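User: Here's a structure from my thesis project, written as structure tokens. My advisor, Dr. K., wants to see whether a designed sequence matches the one we expressed. Can you design one independently, without my sequence as a hint?
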């Protein structure tokens, strides 16, 4: 493991569960991860504006990317907290 990587209690990667739901023209994605003894969740939403050309598959990918980005921010915040950092900037 890279020395600046996140701490882990188990060297085996934890599985992620990705759930995609579509309703009312919105695609919602939830990503759940068990990491370092914690259960973390990221969420993302995408919708199709009437003038957009996004198809269902593109909305699912966009919502999933947003959920993974949200989860990455939460992981970074927990890692900073564990290291005692008083300030954290996440660039997206």
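Assistant: Designed independently from the structure alone:
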């Amino acid at each position: 493991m890279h020395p600046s990587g996140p701490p882990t209690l188990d060297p085996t990667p934890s599985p992620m569960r990705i759930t995609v739901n579509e309703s009312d023209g919105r695609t919602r994605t939830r990503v759940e991860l068990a990491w370092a003894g914690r259960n973390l969740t990221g969420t993302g939403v995408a919708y199709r504006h009437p003038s957009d050309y996004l198809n269902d598959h593109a909305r699912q990918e966009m919502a999933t990317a947003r959920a993974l980005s949200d989860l990455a921010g939460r992981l970074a915040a927990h890692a900073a907290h564990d290291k005692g950092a008083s300030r954290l900037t996440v660039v997206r």
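When you compare it with your expressed construct, this may help: Residues 1-9 have pLDDT under 50 and may be disordered.
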